[in-house]
């Protein structure tokens, strides 16, 4: 039985549309955008699938967290629609996807991803993190390039280890090194590039 499911109806225009929205989200950290041109693959959320359809190809490698790695529909569709090879080692990945259910088990592995190097900081892994919400739960305060003063964002019900990583990652990695994060929930996307400082926002 085939596990291949439809992707973009118009591969060129839909991928360009999603790419533009991703650029907007990356240049304006904390701003949520909605990708609505395709469904997810297996248990992979819709926004994640569309990000890979827009950014990954046969020249980029993808690492999947255990829950996604064991999902045949995810593997088959990522390989079929993007042509991207799925790798077993985090440091080899151009793109990585962490499923919501794997967030706790992956919490100690953030620095196993490629952080780039001074000559080629763009070679760092871009990590897509699937969450249970981007409109409720843990509130964080963001500052840095692309943000006028400060802005607040929500990242759902996440383990404390993930919050600790977000708030300390700039202290542990010298700029311009570091990974860029794309947070997703269903069709919604919020980006936290390596230049964005994150603090825990106190409750009002």
Compose a concise summary of this entry.
With 204 residues, this protein is of the alpha/beta class. The chain has five helices and ten strands.
Structural features:
204 residues, alpha/beta, Rossmann fold, 7-stranded mixed beta sheet, 5 helices, 10 strands, globular, lyase, lyase activity, Phosphonate_metab_PhnH
Describe the fold and architecture.
The chain has 204 residues and is α/β, with parallel strands linked by helices. The protein has five helices and ten strands. It has a single domain, classed as Rossmann fold, CATH 3.40.50. Helix 1 crosses helix 2 (46-55). It starts with 10 loop residues before the first helix and ends with a strand. The model has no long low-confidence stretch (mean pLDDT 94). One of its GO terms (molecular function) is lyase activity.
Strand elements, count: 10
Q: List low-confidence stretches.
A: none
Give the overall silhouette. Answer: globular
User: Oligomeric status of the shown chains?
Assistant: single chain
Distance between the first and last residues' Cα: 52 Å
What letter string, H or E per element, gives the SSE order?
A: HEHEHHEEEEEHEEE
Protein name: Phosphonate C-P lyase system protein PhnH
Organism: Vibrio qingdaonensis
Keywords: Lyase
GO molecular function: lyase activity
Architecture blueprint of SSEs:
Layout: H1 11-27, E1 33-34, H2 46-55, E2 62-64, H3 66-69, H4 72-82, E3 86-87, E4 95-98, E5 126-130, E6 139-143, E7 151-154, H5 160-172, E8 180-185, E9 188-192, E10 197-200
Parallel strand pairs: 2-3, 2-4, 4-5, 5-8
Antiparallel strand pairs: 1-9, 6-7, 6-10, 8-9
Helix pairs in contact: 1-2
């Amino acid at each position: 039985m085939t596990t291949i499911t439809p992707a973009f109806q118009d591969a060129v225009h839909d991928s360009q549309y999603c790419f533009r929205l991703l650029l907007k989200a990356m240049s304006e950290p904390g701003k949520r955008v909605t990708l609505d041109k395709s469904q997810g693959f297996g248990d992979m959320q819709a926004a994640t699938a569309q990000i890979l359809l827009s950014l990954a190809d046969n020249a980029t490698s993808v690492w999947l967290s255990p829950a996604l790695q064991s999902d045949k529909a995810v593997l088959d569709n990522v390989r079929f629609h993007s042509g991207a090879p799925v790798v077993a080692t985090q440091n080899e990945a151009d793109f990585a996807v962490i499923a919501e259910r794997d967030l706790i088990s992956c919490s100690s592995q953030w620095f196993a991803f490629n952080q780039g190097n001074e000559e080629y900081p763009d070679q760092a892994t871009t990590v897509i993190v699937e969450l249970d919400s981007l409109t409720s739960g843990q509130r964080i305060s963001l500052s840095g390039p692309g943000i006028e003063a400060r802005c607040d964002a929500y990242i759902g019900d996440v383990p404390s280890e993930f919050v600790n990583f977000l708030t300390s990652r700039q202290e542990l990695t010298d700029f311009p090194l570091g990974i860029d994060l794309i947070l997703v929930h269903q069709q919604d996307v919020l980006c936290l590039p390596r230049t964005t400082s994150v603090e825990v926002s106190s409750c009002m």
